[in-house]
Amino acid sequence: MKDILTKSALELADLLAAGTITSVELTQACLDRIEALNPKINAFLHVDREGALATAADVDARRAAGEKLHRLAGVPIALKDNMVVRGMPTTCASKILQGWLPPYDATITVKIRQAGLPIVGKTNMDEFAMGSSTEHSAFGPTLNPWDTARIPGGSGGGSAAAVAAFMVPLALGSDTGGSIRQPGSVTGTVGAKPTYGAVSRYGLVAMASSLDQIGPVTRTVADAAALTELIGGHDPADSTSLNEPVPPLVEAARVVAEKGAIEGLRVGVVKELSGEGYAPDVLTAFNETVEKLRDAGADIVEVSCPSFDYALAAYYLIMPAEVSSNLARFDGIRYGIRVEPTQGPVTAQRVMAATREAGFGDEVKRRIILGTHVLSAGFFDAYYGSAQKVRTLIQRDFARVFENVDVLVSPTAPTTAFKFGDKIDDPMAMYLNDIATIPANLAGVPAMSVPNAVSDEGLPVGFQIIAPAHGDQRMYEVAQLVETLSDDVVSQCPAAQWDEKSAQAGEVQEEK
Amino acid sequence: MSRISTEEVARVAGLAHIALTPEEIERFAGELDVITTSVAKVSEVATPDVPATSHPIPLTNVWREDEVGETVDRDEVLAQAPESQDGMFLVPQILGED
């Protein structure tokens, strides 16, 4: 592997600005690695070699001409395949959208284009972002670069694996119940869900609109900060977009990295998210990091959020309800595939039913039906109405504990990466993997996962930091402190040893 | 709360416009039953004195000036449709449906 691929996005940005490397060289290196490793990892569903190199060449020319460019100009990026890029296939890993070319750019795409980051392609995911393992992709699962017998998390397993395998320094994911943070945890990458509304969702194919947020997937906290600064900010095209400035996240992280401490930091350990149900190796890594924070001067207190025990249940009522509404747009009329019934009259209703039967996978159908059921007459109050009340209680729990602490912490996921097939036939077991990440989505508060250890099995573990709404800056400061106090997890990924030639020769390690 | 029967799955699949096979209906009924039983615990704490929250942030209507702006290209949009005709989406027969 070329040395430049191991560098962080901000290190690469400095090298580009200094003229040590060109964006074309860097982008070509990423594309070569994707070409070599993607047949093994399946992190990408689409690669835009020509488009990425054209952007890179344009940035190089503008830089050579002395133009003042965005700090990340020329640094390649990958987008989860539920974010639209005009003219680039977007499938949401679903057969129903196979071959669709969006006629417009998402707001995050516009910002990335304006900043001059080459978009190298679209990453694999659970279909329409529904899943915790990327096994629900219609185009095959993504493999975890730490151990290819294991899942890379979901639904953003493609973005996480692409970053962990040094295919690309930056990627974007979307987080509805933990789909950036849980893959981050099991692939040793940094993943952040900003405060709800801090990043525009215009052009993100909606799964559950009151929960979805776009966020960064990177190998360092500072890179995540830089990418969030780029994509954040008010967007008139998104009615839920916050009208407030993006905080100086990179600078905040830099100050903490230099000091190695945060004065007066109060950290709450969530009792309900760090006990029963969490694997011993995950809890050991978590407790050791908490002790490091204490040694660095943080005041550590245990806090209780009793409503969190109901978060998973509430989430699996609210989310499918919104799914059933949002996915009604896939009707075989305006985009995607159209399937006509093999028997009987070819009416709009029957075409829609046949198209959705053929185009959607099992998990999507399961959630649409569950959502339609909980919203139907006679069940609405008992299910959806009750779940919305739990949402209130969770928000109250957050508000109460944040009166006394700056951030909350927990393990990001209850286990390290599990093996393919372990939970695919048991939806509830799969859903339980998001138990620690879901409360933040229900309340709209920011949360992120930072790799903090490697387990005895040689698998990464993630440490979650949750901040109050609009408290993203404090969250990044604590995340930087955790990263500073932790071992370098990313470089321990076996993919760091994979080179492109042996991958093409089929010598990449299959499994442990 | 009632359990999910195969009849309920078939009814809801009809509402959701998904033509499930009998095997899928049978399988989903079992899986959804487990899920709904698990999530029914929300009623334990959802007492009448707790207000419902539909969204993480308060929503207000958003207005903009009524000015002509950039729109997506119609030909580009229609090129992505399964069928189109005369600058419009071509829809299967709607009238006379059962």
Question: What does this 3D model show about the protein?
Answer:
Chain A contains 17 helices and eleven strands. Chain A is of the alpha/beta class and 512 residues long. Chain A has an eleven-stranded mixed beta sheet, sandwiched between helices. In chain A, strand 10 and strand 11 (460-466) form a beta hairpin. Chain B is 35% helix and 4% strand. Chain B has a domain at 6-45: Histone, subunit A (Orthogonal Bundle), CATH 1.10.20. Chain B is mainly alpha-helical and 98 residues long. Chain B has a two-stranded antiparallel ribbon. Chain B contains three helices and two strands. Chain B has helices at residues 6-15, 22-39, 74-79, and strands at 84-85, 88-89. In chain B, strand 1 (84-85) and strand 2 form a beta hairpin. Classes of the chains: A alpha/beta (512), B mainly alpha (98). Chains A and B meet through helix 10, helix 11, helix 12, helix 13 and helix 14 of A and helix 1, helix 2 and helix 3 of B.
Query: What is the quaternary state of this protein?
Result: heterodimer
- Major protein interface: A-B, 77 and 61 residues
How much of the sequence lies in strands of chain B comes to: under 5%
Number of helices of chain B: 3
N to C succession of SSEs of chain B: HHHEE
Overall residue-averaged pLDDT value of chain B: 90
Determine the structural class of chain B based on helices, strands and strand pairing.
mainly alpha
Indicate the radius of gyration of chain B in whole angstroms: 22 Å
